[in-house]
Amino acid sequence: MKRLTVLAAVIAAAGAFGGWALASGSFFSPPATIVQFGYVKSITPVGKGFELRLDPAYFLGGLTAQRAAAADGREVDNDYYIVNPDHRLFTYRVPAGAPATVVTNSSGGLRSTRVPIAELARIVKGGNPKHRPLLEAGSIRTLGYWVKTRIDTVQSIDQQYQP
Predict the structure, then answer these.
(1) DSSP bridge pairs for 35
(2) Paired sense of beta strands 100-106 and 153-159, if any
(3) Per residue, what are the HEC states of 55-114?
(4) What is the DSSP letter of 31?
(5) Is the dihedral of CA 108, 111, 116, 122 positive or negative?
(6) Which residue has the higher pLDDT, 40 or 6?
(7) CA distances from 12 to 5, 18, 19, 20, 22 (A)
(8) Mean pLDDT rounded to a whole number for the chain
(9) Which residue, among 65, 37, 60, 77, has the nearest Cα to 163 in the 3D structure?
(10) Of 36, 52, 77, 133, which shows the fewest CB atoms inside 10 Å?
(11) 32-55 pLDDT per residue, tens
């Protein structure tokens, strides 16, 4: 009888542990990292870091781009098509040391140039504090960014070249 009781307790404990392990797995959790395309509307200093306001959009390619463009009565140029259905802004935390890049155009051609978040915040506002040869400068800001996040915190921000 004691063995049966011990066996039942072991099976119950194993079931509870198995349920905990399953619930803590990726099936019940969001992806560790989400990468989304969008338009950075602002980057504002907050405490020791920043807050980013992002207008997410869909950067589509191939067949998906062709069908989405056709549905909008448009054609696909350069094999990509951007759909921005609602212009709703989302807020994310940005650590001051998060990596960021912008597209620059110098005599060596186009390249991705790493910049600090504080500088990117000024670039988004239309400034250019380091006088970099930005591909996109001034008040016309149409290039989007790839923003990599973990829940509500930005891991990296990379500007997307668009021909």
Answers:
(1) 148
(2) parallel
(3) EEEEEEEHHHHHHHHHHCCCCCECCEEEECCCCCCEEEEECCCCCEEEEEEECCEEEEEE
(4) -
(5) positive
(6) 40
(7) 11, 10, 11, 12, 15
(8) 87
(9) 77
(10) 77
(11) 899 999 999 999 999 999 999 999
